[in-house]
Amino acid sequence: MDPVGRDTELAALRGALDDVIGGVGRLVLVSGDAGIGKSTLVDAFRPYAAAAGATWLWGAGWEGGGAPSYWPWLQVLRSAARAASAEVTARRDDLGPLGPSGTGASARDRFVLYDAVVDLLVTMAARAPVIVVLEDLHAAGPATAQLLEFVARFGRHARLLLIATYRPAEVDADPDLSASVTRLESVGALVAPGPLSEAGITTVLEAHRVTTAPGLVNAVLERTQGNPLFVTHVARRLAAGGSPADTGLPLGLRNALRRQAASATGTSEVPDVLNAAAVLGPEVQVDALSVVLDAPSQQVRPVLDAATEAGLLRPDLAVPGGYTFTHSLVREALHDGIPPAKLADLHLRVGHALAAAGAEPDRLAHHFLAAWPAGGAVEAARLCRQVADRATAAHAHAEAARALENALISHGRIPAADAAERCDLLVRLAAAQFSAGQTTSARKTAAMAVSVADSLGDADLLGRAALQSASHLPFNSVDHDVIDLLRRAEERWEGRTSPTRAAILSRLAGVTAPVDRETARATAEHAEEVALALGAAVPERERATALSAALTAQLAVAWGQHEPTTALETARRLAELAVDPADEATAAIWVTSFALEVGDTATSESAVASLERIARRERQPRLRHLALSRRATLTTLLGDCAEGLRLLHEARALALRAELPDADAVGWGQLFAVWRCADLSEDDATLMEHIARDLAATSPFPLAHDAAVVQMVAARGDINAARRRFRSLMPAIDTLTHDLLYTWTIALLAEDAVLLEDADAAAVLYKALLPLASRFVVAAGAVACLGSASHQLGRLASLLDKPDEARAHLETAVRAHRLAGCMRMLAASESALASLNPAAIFQYPDGPVITIRNRAEVAQLPRSLGLGYLAVLISNPGKDMLAADLVALTAGAARGDLRPDGAPSPRAADEVLDKAALASYRSRLAAIDAELDEARDWNDAARTDRLEEEREFLLAELSGALGLSGRQRRFADEAERARVNVTRAIRSAIRKLESQAPRLAAHLDSAVTTGARCRYDP
Hints:
This protein is of the alpha/beta class. 65% of the residues lie in helices and 7% in strands. The protein has 48 helices and 16 strands. The strands form 5 sheets. The chain has a 5-stranded parallel β-sheet, sandwiched between helices. A 3-stranded antiparallel β-sheet has the order 6-8-7. The relative contact order is 0.04. About 5% of the residues have low confidence.
């Protein structure tokens, strides 16, 4: 029988299954408050699924706490094993981390596990439709929801129906879970059962043989707010002769249910059997209750049967002889009504009984934690540590942090607790909090660990605590307190060797480098000596980690004075040594940085892809930020500024949520890289300049930021202010150290000198930059890249009237940018090279500023469409060009498909447009395919849908709408619109030239013909 008032909701579930039978995977989310009828709705749908021949796989979250990660999925896996044991067995190794024991979890990445789940379900769905039901998602935790996201995304082409139920208020209380459910809601159908109407309440009352006297229905509605579970209990009370008022609903639900439990068993109080069952959990087994109560099963089972008759329990179909509660509210009401002392004692007895039966640590820890003050603190602390270990192995870092917090609470309840053990827990908690993105909490925890370790005088504990305090520091500051702490921790070792000491020395070298490079270099070398001296008694993994840290420190100390090719080889060695996720990520960043410095974008791309795999596997916000932000670097460098902007915003938002220290430093640098080649919104431009100015005032690398501010001021048109600011920076050149931002700083200052035509400064900067001619200009850790330093050198040489040197440098830059695939930078270098011909009219970009030269006249104007149209005409002298073609060509240049100076060689306008457009469409389709793979990997539903829509549009256009294989079709209104817009834009650009280059403006005014066809006759 269908539940009352749920026809629409049932129709939605049945329609989803019909789609699945037709081969389209579906996700349905059933959302509503407790008692609203979510489970009843799903149960009512099951007969329809059975009639359709679907395989039903079920799992549910456990609200009592203590369930392992992925607990609902483990239940689904058990159901799958009963339905398809061979398929489950074949994937046993890959599915191992899903089990409560987590066998092999630490050695496998999460992606392999997720993929194995999808593969299993898709294989089963090939034989018959599969329905996976996950109830009480709000109680299951973020890990379960994330796996559901993955299955929903990659199982959408299989006959697979996913149904998840949850309470929205409890989901909203967990930020990580809420984020996952929000993404699920964007790709799934939402079913939200509402309260029962008066008609529905009447039906329920009549089903319980209650006469619906006038006013009764309204009284029940007022008392229950239409909640179906509450209505049913009111109906039962009314059938027994009560009234709506004495049911105590909804606020008195607990008491009402406890009275019902007592009445069902013929006692005045809830019997111990039902109290113990409520503590034991949703799965009630007679044998376990017998152990807990020290009573024979013959005394236990009759009480359970009576509760079943009363509708409080029902037989557990999955466990012969077992029972489950009819609703989680029933169990909660019984559990919460137990007096505290009695409740603690029951939890302790249940914990010991389950431990004897070999239950998992997650479940046991819950009971021993709740057993306080009856005892169990020692067991709770030990079990919580085990839970944390397993959560860490499954990359569930927030869960690991919660478990360690509980371990500390329990440890504090142990009489004469060991202080060293408490310090160890604090150190581990700080590490888990950092991994989970809880940076502020992690720093406080690390400080507590340092305090305890100091009081103990334990060198290893102090070292480990100090290392946590020194982790995740911003590179734009120097923390002298941390330096002092690391030095003090190192002194405790008194010449002894250990992995901890090697790590301390490595970290000390890194944080000391900005203030004392020579001491830092010696410290890094000492770290390597200690790492190499570790004997066979130290596990090989720890020896490799210690050596990796020492080599990383040496790279950090040498940064700015390094030779990129040699440094790249060291970075590759680090990648081979890395066994820890943090080391793997660090090596990937080093490889990305040094490969960019030598112009090897292919190797950088490979390293960033590796970083993305690490981030997917580890699920740490810091690693995810590294992957997103460095993908933004490469995307912008290779010409897709719009996508680079989207990625950098996503990375910055993530970093701010996780309280990562370099969110602003990375964000502004990447905004600056986009700003140089595309327009920013007013908000983005303001944010970029605000952060840059702030860092210029507070960072140990002020010139690196101030040099960029000069360009921002100039772009606003305040050349005099930019010139004053630039001149105030130049005296600091003599004291500038060769650090991680040295090349970036000199290159930006060189651009400032060219922009402001300061020949004196150009001479100084040319000399400083010349030794770096062979490398690309990369900001710290591949945050941004300005392209080949030869480009800036060529511009400086041109300003210094050294045409031969300028031509050689710019030709080098052209080759480097072409090999690297940096098409925007290639266009800029080619344009600058062409500018060496004093008789030509040409344009080249300086960020958002366009420079136009003609013999002795020079003008600098903001980027505009009119200048873009002029560039195309000037590059095709004597050729008639349709206004519509100019629009298309300039749009292609804005996407990076064409050179900003209109580089297409002289030919008929239609031919230029057809080939350029065809190349542009094919290039964008290839880029979309790569972006789709990434979006699907990250389970980014919104981005995937947008890309798929764009791909379908482009394919349709290619198939004939634009006629790219023949002549392009045009419509009169489009041609007229292009004529008006192009004419207006060109004439406006020429007028703006008049104040700076009057002869050039006059020449263009007479030499350029505008209209439906445009032409430049020099």
